[in-house]
Amino acid sequence: MSDLEPLTAHTVSSRMVHHGQRISLRIDEFRLGDRQTVTKEIIEHPGSVVILPITDDGHVVLVKQWRQAAGKVLLEAPCGTREPGEDPLITAHRELREETGFRAGTMKPIGGSWVAPGYSGEFTHAFVAYNLTPDPLPQDTGEDIHTVMTSFADLPRMIREGEMQDQMTIAVYYMAMHVFNEETMQAQPG
Questions:
Q1: Are both 72 and 15 inside the same structural domain?
Q2: Which domain holds residue 119?
Q3: Cross-sheet strand order for the sheet of 123-134
């Protein structure tokens, strides 16, 4: 580890090159300390949520859906994009109902992570959902989502064997490990 002072950035210029419905792309020029100017393409994103829903008997509710960017169906925890300025808790409740058909009696925040800070401003808020009851909302246009039930104990194998490749799902699993009793692998609220 270096004992140099942390670098600070100074934005020289920033210009929007694409403004989309969910994301935008800007080109930033910035300088780190007294170094040369660097140019980066930055995706502006309103942020997202990822939820690990746990049934009363300790099963995890996952979803399968086609992901165009990946070119295949992925197995994931329910997740979704926040509306600009929307409270992440509101997004989590809505996305859970849209993607799984369940309402959460308890939605516990467990942290968050930057998705790809090298080129994106997307921050994902992570939740564990308990006390699930059926209460579906219609899926978003363009989605064809199917639910899959599995045990929490099976998630490490699914990650290791490549059945789950979505980074948000992998991250929420590791963040949620502390809410499980190691002996029974049953969800423990609190």
A1: no
A2: 48-179
A3: 79-81, 48-53, 123-134, 102-114
Q: Is residue 185 part of a domain?
A: no
- The answer on 91 and 20 residing in a single domain is no
User: What's the helix, strand, coil split of the chain in %, to 5?
Assistant: 20, 45, 35
Can you give the CATH number for the domain in which 76 is found? 3.90.79.10
Provide the 3-class DSSP secondary structure of residue 99.
Answer: helix
Task: Establish if 140 belongs to a structural domain.
Answer: yes
Structure tokens at 60: 């995890």
Residue-by-residue pLDDT tens, the chain, 190 positions: 455 666 788 999 999 999 999 999 999 999 988 888 999 999 999 999 999 999 999 899 999 999 999 999 999 999 999 999 999 999 999 999 999 999 999 999 999 999 999 999 999 999 999 999 999 888 888 888 999 999 999 999 999 999 999 999 999 999 998 776 433 344 444 4
pTM for the model stands at 0.88
